[in-house]
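Dear U.,

For the methods section draft, I wanted the exact inputs and outputs in one place so we can describe them consistently. I've listed the two proteins in the order they'll appear in the manuscript figures. Please don't edit the token lines directly; just add comments below if something needs changing.

First protein:
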Amino acid sequence: MDEMILEARHVSYAYDDGHTPSLNDLSLSVKKGSRTVFMGANGSGKSTFFLCCNGILRPDAGQISIAGKPIVYKRKELLKLRRKVGIVFQNPDVQLLSASVYQEIAFGPLNLGLTETEARARVEDMIARMGITPFKDRPAHALSGGQKKQVALADILVMAPDILILDEPFAALDPGHVRTLRALTDHLSDTGMTVIVATHDVDHALEWADDLILMKEGRVVAQGEPIRLLSDERVLEKADIHMPEVLKLYRKLIGKGLIDAALPAPKSFDELERYIERKA
């Protein structure tokens, strides 16, 4: 039986006006070690839910559990929670607070109670792994958008969380930084970390995710295997999401008799290309 590392039951949350709930009786679960993608239009509640997952926000109703234990909203317990659940925000500027890159990454380990020697070793290792050594002494605010994302991610990973949440991680990044970040999320997932990503990129969700959660108006529209949900026109219409291009092309090629209709729906263009070569 799959172990659930994150569970939400009937969670609701509304911002100050209280009239328009951002989360509306939301229930879902995330498997330990999974690659899970959240999708939905802006305002569907994804970011609000993530903030509830590490205690930045407290739900108005319902319960969120991490590794089977409900979140406890006391300072000591929230500090423990934020070591287990790390969030990299869409805009890294809201996350980076310290003067230099090194100081930024060192802040967390030092607050864990590590000695300065232990913290330094952990930070230096993370800086090397992330490939940010050339600018470790530079002011964080002076970095490029892609570099800030790298530092924000290092900021979280140095704490060795059980769950990593990436909110629109590829937004405003150049192709090089996108490739680097995708390779890193692959590696982290392969090591057993639970990686949760919010994205509008349906093609990436199809190819990368184990589990897909579609949200609209603070609720879960559907949850399940990406290939099943992203092939279902009724589900896509309900969630206001378009079908991945590779699946559109796959259907057209079947209609023209150019590939075998018995072949399973492909998750990538590379897989579809192999189908075409097999038919040729």
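Second protein (the one for the lower panel):
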Amino acid sequence: MTTAVAQNETTPIAVGTPAPDFTLKDQDNKDFKLSDYLGKKPIVLFFYPLDWSPTCTKENSCFTQDLSRFSKLAEVAAVSIDSVWSHKAWKEQMALKHRLLSDMHRKTTKDYGLFHAGGNVSQRATVIINKEGKIAWVKVEADITKERDYNEVEAQLKKLS
């Protein structure tokens, strides 16, 4: 897989750009390597600021309830700067069904241009990667305290089917 040149850490990665490969640990301390999923179906990465925060808690709860809407169309994972241990506790407490990826060093967040320097967290953003490994769609929420529009994400995924 071709790796894109690192983006400015606060400028979202451009559509059509090869998706930077990464390996992040999930809540069970298992590796999630992006390139392992390429060629099968699109990949959706839901970047969010923090476990346990009010908007992120509500959003991830809603997302897990609607997981089947997305998992039939794409491989899905949520990414934040929280630790594996925080993810594990939060997932158990919230009964979340989706995979939570830990980007504690913020490298993936910065490579995708989604770093929120003021909060030292990721922006609330959605990145869709097509089967070929290119960025198909990126949406950064203008207000980090507002939930993303899942209907919009689903509509974008259906365009790739």
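Candidate sentences for the figure legend, describing the second protein: The domain at 39-139 is CATH 3.40.30.10 (Glutaredoxin). The first strand starts at residue 23 and ends at 26.

Thanks,
Y.
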